[in-house]
Amino acid sequence: PLVWIRRGTMGKSTKPAAAPPDTISLHRKLDPIYECVDTGQNKAALKLIGDLLKKYPTLQIARVLKGITLSRMGMEDQGMELCEEVRAEGPADDTVLNTLALFYKNVGAAQQQVEMFEQASERDPRNAEHLTLLFQAYARAYDFVKQQQCAMKLYRLTNNPKHVMWAICAMLMQADANPTALALAAGMCSKLEAKGSIADRESLLVYARVLRESGQGEKALELLEGDLGERLLPMAAERAVLCATQAAALGKSDAAGKHWRALLTHAPDDWAAMSRVLDIAMPTTRAAAAHKPQVPAGGTRMAAHSHSVGGAGFAKVSSEGFRSDDETVAELLGRVSVKDGPDRAEAIERGRTVSAEVRAAADALGGALEVGRGAYLLDAEFAWRAAQLGDPESKVGDAMMTYWRDFGHWTSCARDLRPYCDAIRRTNARAAREFSDRFVDAASAMPEPERVVGGDGAKEARRHLRRVIAAHAIASQLGRCGGSWRVTPGDRDAPFGLARPSLGRGEGRGRAAAAMELYRRSKSTFAGPDPREPTPADTAALLAMQALCAEATGHAAVAARGGGGEGVDGSLREAAMSLLAAAAVAEEGVAASPNHAELRLGLTSVYALLGAATAARDAFAPLDVKNIQMDSMIHHVLPIAEGGATPQVTFRVTRFADNLRDEARRDVPDGCVKAYENGIYTKALEFVDFHERLRASHSLAAATVARVRATLRETSCGGGVTVRETREGKGQPVYAGVPGPVMGALDAAAKACQGLLTHTSGMANARYNEDLGTNPVWHPPHHGASALAVPDWWTVTSRADLPPGCAVAVAGAHDAGAGGAGASVA
Fold first, then answer.
1. Quick one: residue 802, left, alpha or beta (phi over 0 = left, psi -120 to 50 = alpha)?
2. Is the pTM of this model over 0.70?
3. Contact at 8 Å (CB) between 372 and 307?
């Protein structure tokens, strides 16, 4: 609020005024103006400002307040003109400067704010407050070189070590463009340490990051393990993670293992620590249950190609098949080439010992209910790694079955086992089918609990149904309901993300009928106080939908391969009927559990594939996707908006995306400045990275381009957007015969894409933040125009139906889907 920055003499222009204002009376006149501006009474504020300017026409604070008011009334150009006039006069009063800064911040004019504080600092170079405001202006403009220079000027004035840390953070952010900055930052950190000025957690973390990124990883590890690290990182678990991560980066397996084991004493259910200990015990194996890489001390930059979940890179299609730029296809799929040698038996024994020790420690602490289920899931992880070293693969199935028997009544059971299901399906489709049948048979063989009304009887009935549903979900993950686009069964030459789940004619409907019988039988058992909340029974409805859509996919592929031959119409009818049945199943599910996100996203996909864009929009709308979700989930709705929905749908969706961009433009720089003020330097660095994520966001740019296309279509057709002729300077301007709305739309598209393009690499700068893990299993990511997503789904004949030479983003080992064990793109 403006009331926070009122003080001083309110500033006078260098132009002669009719009479000098009396400060006390002026304050009395300004107070109601501040009140009106702060409460949004713009017309009243404008009237009061007008009255004041009649008496003092050159009063700077009044003119700036008028500019703010005009901008809030939609007259931003007039407001900018007034404020630029005041800035040109070189205001010296802090109140005027701060109020001008507020105006520039609100309209996103970072450069004008910088120039204003540069002028103020030039007039009074020893004014620490002006230099601080100038540093903040540079931070809002993301000018890291000038941030560094300004911070050092502040340090020479104040001798406050926090200003050195400001400069060091600026150096970290310019390291890509100026690698020598890191060496200078490391030297400055060393001097601070010698003076005893590394005295808080944030300074230590930044120091460790500087050392790591400047190639002094050994010294970074010494810092974290030493007395300074122990004193400034009082949380033992956090320190163990940072030390283990740094030691692992240096290839020091023994030191890393020591720290990971220390972490397990403080956090016995830390899955990353357990998995890393197995990495060290069984060094030639690859984990099935992947996890996010640990964040090193001080943080790190976001991966440039985050669309490939886990940074797996891009796969290129050639006449020889799929090849990866960075890794072999086998590595992309989560498999490794195990080296021959006598160490296999020793590695298996070391892994078995680790698994037994972790489980025994969990038992000693009270079991899964006290410490979590990770120690018990580790048996399945060990079995999978042992299979890579030559142990019988059947032991993986045995470990999964044991886990299901012990934890099948836990809601997380099927998701916990999903990575192992995917791994088995990828490497041995026959074994996947056998394991799938084992789980279904085991569920069928479970004796029904005695029917006792209320109490323990009802509880046991719920536990029984949870186990049954979990078994069917695990079987589905093994391919019983057609599979998933994330897993290519037995195909070692196709990257993740291009599979086409499929079931034969009638097979999907039979599986769906069984799943819906289970759903209807279970629904009443799980009914809670709020009938709208998701329950375990909803999983059965989701499995039915997956089976029906897998059958539809199979029919669509048959039709696509048939070209114009006989039987195509029949296959298309069968596909449409399966999708309609899937829609009916999903509608039944969301009617009972309207807040179930997976059912809603699945229903959205099914309606879109049926060409029912309006129904798809209605299914998606209750998810209330907005704010940052527009960056990670807009890929679900853009094919609807551009594939048949009314223009209003496009305008509404893209307005949310524009709101995110506007809010980020305003709030992210403020968050960065406040982090610097409060000494939370790692957060300041995170805000810079978050700004870069949104600046180069592929999804936000795609939303803007979609809005532009809709605007052009509406303008061309004379609907939705009004085009007025230009006569005597009135109406919309015309540029070389192009109406104003058209020119404005093209300008918006150009600005949205400007940050994504380079002269040499096309869209290489784009950040793909789409959360691919939320895509339904039958609906793989689409890499073309949003408007063609649905037609392309219907016309793809196989997973390898891509032209030679193209590059597609591929998902990596971290993609375990919404709520899965891994991490999605976002």
1. beta
2. yes
3. no
